[in-house]
Every structure is written in structure tokens, then in C-alpha cells.
Amino acid sequence: MADPKGFINVSRQTPTRRPIDVRIQDWKEVYEPQEFGVLQKQASRCMDCGIPFCHQGCPLGNLIPEWNDLIWRGEKKEAIARLHATNNFPEFTGRLCPAPCETACVVGVNGDPVTIKQVELRTIEEAFDYGDVNPLPPDRLSGKTVAVIGSGPSGLAAAQQLTRAGHTVAVYERAEKVGGLLRYGIPEFKMEKQIVDRRITQMEGEGTRFRSGVNVGVDITGQQLRAKYDAVVLAVGATNWRDINVPGRDLKGIYQAMEFLPWGNKQALNEISGEPPINTHGKAVIILGGGDTGADCLGTSIRQGAASVTQLEIMPRPTEERPSAQPWPTYPMIYRVSSAHEEGGERLYAVSTEEFLGDENGNLRAIKLSEVEFKKESGKFEKVPGSEKELKADFVFLAMGFVGPEKSELLQQLEVEFDERGNIKRDENFATNIDGVFVAGDAGRGQSLIVWAIAEGRSAAAAVDTYLVGETQLPSPIEPTARPLMV
To answer: What is the tens place of the pLDDT at every residue in 237-267?
Structure first.
């Protein structure tokens, strides 16, 4: 145990965000460094509970009390070893995970939970700073080959585990660079892309091979893939975005979030000359969707110099306290303020889009919306009479989530089956209906959290290893039927 009275004597303290007027002028991460001594005190708040519910909140089964104790004692090498035992990429989850472990923290029953996420992030960053993250190549090769399709967190986790088990693994990515949504969907101010690059370097040192710019199903067929590899892992994500069917949808200026965000990242990294094709500078921006992707569009628009940004959500404004229907240790839907929300813009709740309005040239000029109320009798949102209004809009970004994997040429060629939710169907061993073809991450689970993606990749790797050699020593943290506390 850390300090037996740490949770009593030490108050929760998170890192300070850089001043708003400074950080919106660049694309760097928003947090200032936290002194290691302060972090150690935060780690001392861990109670080392008899039943650590933080484990229940974390799909990876992270050994949270153990590495909290080690950080408090200053034993950094031991701490990163415990963290890497369950999590391939704590630098990703430490930045991007909404921390269901913290909402399940026992200290949080009647107080402020331990800053688990920050201790995790600082543990891996200390390890990188001191050269304690090195390639771990296998002792011997199995002679088996595996293709992983998709280089998001699930695909990378599966690839690293399978490489370390001795298999020859190639990761295919259709984009020009590896990383999937980590690279193209997560803004630079939330995670700088050199964070992804340094982990890819480690994986290359272990023997994982990366094939970017290859659209599997077009550049190489599913049949060719099956003939070349002993097993295939589909980690293609849930990239089939949800759309909206209202009048005016075809006007110029309406884009999906994932049509906009990649250009913001390219702009941040100086990978394009001149202005990005979708540039909100001096424009009125409306974002449909109140989640993290919407907040990413908000922060990106602010950094591009948008004149105004308004984020719309059909649900009513959440409460700031746990709803009674979401008791500890579940993940509560409460009102949260991200770094992007601090920086500007307006959030409107309980509103629904009725129509997009355009000018004579087919360009978007405004959005017509109305207030809505949820009626228990009908189970639907119903319009509040007389509540219609128009908002000026030069751009509208649709950030309403995803509804499963794209029905791509590859999936058609492999003839995999789909479940009733539109995800790739699989059994308890992450296997599809096609022998030797497995699925991991959002493609099989549906849109979920990065921590679930990594857990799925690790579990699928264990199943593939068993398929290839008859047994496995790789850990399998989850079952495919397990559902997240938050989707």
C-alpha cells in the first residue's frame, strides 16, 4: 500500500492546462508538466483496496494499485514493468481514455478519485525519457505468418502481441501513414503524433512489418491475402459514419467530422502547403454531436480561427452529479468540460436539426433547428412548438458517431458474416465464419473506447496464437461478449 492516510491527507490534483490564449495559438498538447513529487503524492492516495473496483472499470485489467504504490516509492522501472504487463500503449490511454477506472475508484465513493490516468501517463513518459522502453523481439520465430488489417490501437496491440509470440506479422494500412484514427482522427493538441511514431519504431525493432498506403481488397485481394498468410486479423475499425437525413444535406459546406479532422492534423504537422481544403478561418461553424469527436472539431476550428463555433446535442444537458440510474462504480453520463470547451464556442442541448439552408449557389448559409423534449409515452424526442430558430452556418460538421465497419471490397471478398448491429460476426475466440480470419476492436464490438480496442487486440492475439500453434501464453483480458461501461 502507498501512504495509509494518503487519501485523507492529500487532495486530488491534476496537471495544469496551458493558458487558453497561449495554447490556441499552436497545436501542441494542452497540459503543462507536473512535478514528479506532486505525482507521487497523488499516487499515495490509492487505498490498495481489498477489492479494487478500478480493475472492474478497466477492460485491460491494469494492476492499478500496484503501480500506484511503486510510483509513490519512486520505483519507476518496476512501475512501468507492471503497467506494460497489461497495457501495450499506456501513452495512448493515458491521454485519450475517459478513465472508467477513476469513476470506479473506491476513494470516489464519497470523495475525489485517485488521478489514475495521470499516474499511468507519467509512468510511461518517465520510462521513455530514461530509455526504459526498448524493443522486445522474440527468442525464436514460429514460422507462422499473420496479416493485421488496420493500424489503429486494436490492430497495433494484436500485432505487437503476435510478433512477441514469434510470428511474422505484417500490418496493412490504407492511409499514407500508420496509426489509424490515432493519427488522423485525434487532434494534435490531444496527442502529438510523435507519440505514435516512437511506439511504431519500437514495434519495428521487434520485427513487426508495416505496409502503409495499401488498400487491402483493391491493391491486394482477400484471396491473395489468405494465400499468403496463415491467419488474418481484421482490425478495420467502425468507420461507417452516421449521417443525417434532412432537407439541404447536399449543400456545400456540410462534412463528416472525419472528413475535416485529418486536414487539421496535416495542417498542424505542416504536411500540406497552403491552407487546408476545409478551413474554418473566419467562418461560422456548427457541430452536430456533443461527444469527444465534436469537441475535437471544436478545438480544431478554434485553432484555425473560426469566427464562431456552436456544438449541438439532441440530449438534454447532463447533470453535474451522478444520476441515480448510474451509481458507482459505473461510468456516469455527467456534464464534462474538455480543454476544447474551455477555449470557446457554445453548447446547445435538447435541440434537433430540421433543415440546412443554402444560398442561390448551393452553399450552406444557415441551419434551422428546434428544441425537443423526450416523451416517455412515445419513446421519442418531440418538437417543442414555436421553438424553431436559425443559426448562421458556413460549415456544419457531423460528429454523430459510427455504425459499424465499412462494407469494403475486402470484407466482401473474404465473405465474412455480419451481426444484427452491422459488425463483423465472431465467436468466443474472436474468429469469423471464415477459417483463419479473426476480428478485433470496433469492427467486431462496435464503436467503443481506445482501452477496449487495446484489450480486444490483446485478446484476439491470444486466440490467433492458439489457432496457429495449439496453445498460447499470451494474456486474454476480455471475452468478446463483454460490454463496455460506456460506448
So the answer is: 999 999 999 999 999 999 999 999 999 999 9
Does the reported pTM lie above 0.85?
Answer: yes
117 vs 104: CA distance, rounded Å: 12
In angstroms, the CA 291 to CA 349 distance is 12
d(CA 487, CA 477): 18
* Residue found under cell 499470451: 474
Residue with cell 492511409: 175
In the chain, the domains with their CATH numbers are 6-129 (1.10.1060.10), 145-239+403-469 (3.50.50.60), 254-398 (3.50.50.60)
In this predicted model, what pLDDT tens digit does every residue of 203-214 receive, in sequence order?
A: 999 999 999 999
What is the rounded CA–CA span in Å between residue 162 and residue 148?
A: 10
* CA dist., res. 183 & res. 269, Å (int): 11
Please state whether the peptide bond connecting residue 329 to the residue before it is cis, i.e. omega within 30 degrees of 0.
Answer: yes
DSSP structure class, residue 197: H
Neighbours of 135 (CB within 10 A): 14
Q: End-to-end CA distance of the chain, in Å? A: 33
SS3 315: coil
Where would I find the H helices in 394-449?
Answer: 409-414, 442-445
Smallest CA-to-CA distance from 228 within 159, 153, 172 is with 172
Question: Is the separation of the CB atoms in 299 and 187 below 8 Å?
Answer: yes
CA angle 216, 220, 221 (to 5 degrees): 85
Paired sense of beta strands 145-149 and 308-313, if any: unpaired
How many CA within 13 A on the CB side of residue 267?
A: 22
